[in-house]
Design goal:
This protein has 136 residues and is mainly alpha-helical. The protein has one domain. 46% of the residues lie in helices and 6% in strands. The protein has a two-stranded antiparallel ribbon. A hairpin with a 4-residue loop joins strand 1 and strand 2. Helix 3 crosses helix 6 and helix 4 packs antiparallel against helix 6. The longest helix is centred in the N-terminal third of the chain and has 20 residues. The radius of gyration is 18 Å and the shape is elongated.
């Protein structure tokens, strides 16, 4: 009986630890569209993960210039280059050169939202379950 309780408690503690390690934001306030994007439900859950359209477009469009050994002089970027607020600012304010020079024009508005969702969801600060959500 005592051994069963210890095993059960070990399982509960393991699940609790794993759930906080994998914590990701559930929603994101998009300043540009003034909408709350629910990231952990339905299509957005799939499309903003590592295999979705957000990641695919980031790799195809952004990493074309922002790769490690690029010839364009663009700084190396990956999903954890900024925190979630930083990524949101880049997409909302569009102060970066590539946002202003037409490099993003190959992406539809929906694809831009998915890239922002993907980067926000996987930013360098998103594994803190206490402050990851920004809206609602």
């Amino acid at each position: 009986m005592k051994k069963t309780i210890v095993i059960l408690l070990s399982c509960i503690v393991s699940i609790a630890i794993l759930s906080t390690v994998q914590a990701r934001p559930n929603k994101r306030l998009d300043e540009r569209t003034k909408s709350c994007r629910i990231l952990n439900n339905g299509t957005l859950d799939w499309e903003t993960d590592h295999w979705g359209i957000g990641a695919e477009k980031f790799k195809a469009v952004c990493k074309g210039c922002h790769s490690l050994d690029n010839q364009s002089g663009a700084p190396f970027l990956y999903m954890e280059s900024y925190g979630s607020t930083g990524w949101n600012n880049i997409f909302a304010k569009r102060t970066k050169k590539c946002a202003r020079d037409g490099s993003w024009d190959v992406l539809t508005q929906d694809e831009l939202l998915l890239v922002n969702d993907y980067l926000y969801r996987n930013a360098n600060d998103t594994y803190d379950p206490n402050d990851a959500d920004t809206c609602g």
